[in-house]
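Morning!

As promised:
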Amino acid sequence: MKITNLEKQVAFIKEIDKIKYIQRKTKLFNSERRENDAEHSWHLAVMAMVLAEHSDKTIDLLKVLKMVLIHDIVEIDAGDTFFYSTTKDHKNTEEELVAAKRIFGILPEEQAEELITVWEEFEAGETDEAKFAKSMDMFEPLLQNFSNNGGTWVEYDVPYQKVHDKKKEIKNGSTTIWNYAESLINEGVEKEFLKK
Amino acid sequence: MKITNLEKQVAFIKEIDKIKYIQRKTKLFNSERRENDAEHSWHLAVMAMVLAEHSDKTIDLLKVLKMVLIHDIVEIDAGDTFFYSTTKDHKNTEEELVAAKRIFGILPEEQAEELITVWEEFEAGETDEAKFAKSMDMFEPLLQNFSNNGGTWVEYDVPYQKVHDKKKEIKNGSTTIWNYAESLINEGVEKEFLKK
């Protein structure tokens, strides 16, 4: 019996439900509760919608939304890697690529290929859309940590310079958002969330 | 001191974090854990991406994504109304409109107006995009209930006819998805999830 496109898509829709169980290190705003990947992806999508005007380049918002909505689906197999991890490279693309092929591979072939390509474009971070999507991915936890008296910065004793160096990638997508983010990071030093 | 667009947008980004605490009646797939509005909205967005080909009409996917991503933000003030509630009309637009104006009103004026308009278009359910977005909103909990041995249908003793009548709205967006959904509902009767 031939499996229809819709049946494959429904199987995919069920499979990706699992990202609701994948906990990030970062907590919700003013909260003790860790955020999960579905909540995080939703937040990035709405952020991209409302912050698009600050992109340094003209972007295809639909492409950006696709990127942020699916960027963490690979973590169903590969797990979440802490952004400031000192033991594991955040860009563990080998393990994540296998995951992308398995999970997006549940979809009809053409659609699977399209989404793997979108995911790879995000990961590579070279196009204007990927740069802006990554800015969102960097900006949300920065805002969360700031609202949580330093959050994971304090919890894991992350030094100022590391935060500044890594978050500076926001500038690739938006100078305006980076300037704002940098001022928060500096304020974080004053408030002793970050040690210089 | 003039509040910049970015500052208003950041205030909005913080405010909408609250939908992560709004619990729906429906539970995650094969799960005892209730879904929250952020997870639900994320899931609808990815569903819209992968199911768009089944829309009966040509749709602007970006518009559909905006709709599903923001459609439940009003519940921060108005709360979630159970789809099969016998005491409260699901379309409590008066209370929800006040909520929409307050919450989207945190954004810069033009942007607030745009999102209120998108939300109203979704609620009215008259355009092709709104019809398809609403199909997604109907289809996800149906799949979840089916994966949970009847889920809220059994928990709240919802009769077959009510489910069939209400879910038939899926057909406004997609005949293909409705045919599939209807076959699941009928299977739900066989499995005694639904009483005829």
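The mean pLDDT of chain A is 94.

Hope this helps with the figure draft.
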